[in-house]
Structure formats: structure tokens, C-alpha cells
Design goal:
The structure is a single chain. By secondary structure, the protein is α/β, with parallel strands linked by helices. The chain has one domain: Rossmann fold. It has 7 helices and 10 strands. The strands form 2 sheets. It has a 6-stranded mixed sheet with strand order 6-7-8-3-9-10, sandwiched between helices. Helix 4 crosses helix 5 and helix 5 packs parallel to helix 6. The longest helix is centred in the last third of the chain and has 18 residues. The radius of gyration is 17 Å and the shape is globular. The protein starts with a strand and ends in a 5-residue tail after the last strand. The chain binds adenosine-5'-triphosphate and magnesium ion. The site of magnesium ion has 3 residues, from helix 1. Magnesium ion binds next to helix 1.
Length: about 230
Amino acid sequence: MNEQIVIARDLVKTYDNGRTRALDGVSLEIFAGEFVAICGPSGSGKSTLLNLIGALDRPDSGELWVAGEDLTHSRGDLASFRARKVGFIFQLHNLIPSLTALENLLIPTLELNEPRREAQARARELLERVGLADKAHRRPPELSGGERQRVAVARALINNPQLILADEPTGSLDSKTEKAVLDLLRELHRERGVTLILVTHDARVAQHADRVIELIDGRVVIGVDTAQKP
Ligand SMILES: Nc1ncnc2c1ncn2[C@@H]1O[C@H](COP(=O)(O)OP(=O)(O)OP(=O)(O)O)[C@@H](O)[C@H]1O
Ligand SMILES: [Mg+2]
């Protein structure tokens, strides 16, 4: 068994001075190399949980370890943690419209001190891998929704993170494009051995994962293995 890459114990996160209890004691473990879906209805706390795992926000109480980092107590440089350990994919790609696909890929590499040439080589290789080598110099408004999401997938992988966090990554796509992006994510997860955590309210999308963790009202209600994948 691989080691845990995420360990959460009794995580609580509130908003509005405690009036909204977005996470109400979440405990879970995710193992290195897993593909896990976090599923649940709107408002159940999925994005809140993903944002804590990605060190975009801090819990009110509980314990959270991600890739060996203590995110509850650490006062360290979380920007550096995020840049080195985590790749993010959001529903609306979050690409910078005035930059080309290639330039968008290079943004996370600015956090690393490495020769530009190495970052550029990785970016070109990834664009090739997601099938966009010929569109490296297009800007997001000149790409289709599915192409933009493929750029976002490549950007999430650019720093070779241990963990990819995807929040409704196919939420704005039609069903055919959705399947293509989910297939791409699954292939990259396999090829690179990267841990993939995908948030979705859609049980059909969750079926692409090896394991589904279900949240309701800020609590984990189920964590089952979906059938063995070929
Ligand atoms: N920044 C915030 N300020 C106040 N309340 C918030 C904030 N973010 C989330 N909430 C509240 O916390 C609860 C959980 O929200 P969260 O965004 O985690 O749900 P979700 O499962 O991702 O929902 P969806 O499927 O609609 O994206 C909701 O009641 C929401 O209104
Ligand atoms: Mg959400």
C-alpha cells in the first residue's frame, strides 16, 4: 500500500463568524497515486475541502497533512508549497486571456528557481501531450472550451506536482468534451502516477474515479470503491 498523501482528522471550517459550518468534522485519508472523486450536492463543502487540501485556506480546527506538510499549524511559505506540490484545475480554466497557451503554462514555473529553457521545454512537451502543440501561441479567447481546459490540465502538471486538485473541471463542457477531458486526466494520472482528487456534484463524473468520497452537509457519509477499472 502506498503512503497517505492526504490525512485529515476532524476538520472544521466555518464562514460568517461561525454561522455557516462548511466542514463539520471531516476525517479521511487519500493514498499517493489514487484517483479519488469527492462527490456531493451543492453546498456540501466540496470546494471548501479542496481549498484546504490545496492550502488555499486554513481549517478552523482539526488536523491536515498534505504531502508531508502540516497545513494546520505551519506558518511556512504556503505559496511555495502550492507551487511545488499541487496543481489546480478549476471549472472555468482560470487562464490569463492576454497570454498565449504557452505563456499560461509557464506562470507556475516562475515560483521555481530553474533555467527558463527547462521550463519552456516542459511546457512544450506538455502542450504536445495534451494535443495542442500547434496552438501554443493562441490566446484563450481563440481556443474552444475543451482546448482551454486541456491547457489548464497541462498548466496543473507543469511543475510535476504530487497532487492534482480539480474542482468541477468539466462543469462548463458538453458531454462529449467532458468525456475527452476526463479520459485525458485519467491517462495522465496513470502515466505520471500523480494523485488526482476530483470534485464533482455529478455522480456520472465521479464514476471515472477509483474511489468516491461523498460529502453531505460538511460530513463524509461514504467512501466506497467504484468497480475495478480495466
Ligand atoms: N467564502 C465563503 N464565505 C461564506 N460562506 C461560504 C464561502 N465559501 C463557501 N461558503 C458556504 O459554505 C458551504 C459549503 O460551500 P462549498 O463551496 O464548499 O460547497 P460545494 O460543495 O463546493 O458546492 P457547489 O457544488 O455548489 O460548488 C455553503 O453553505 C457555502 O454557502
Ligand atoms: Mg464547489
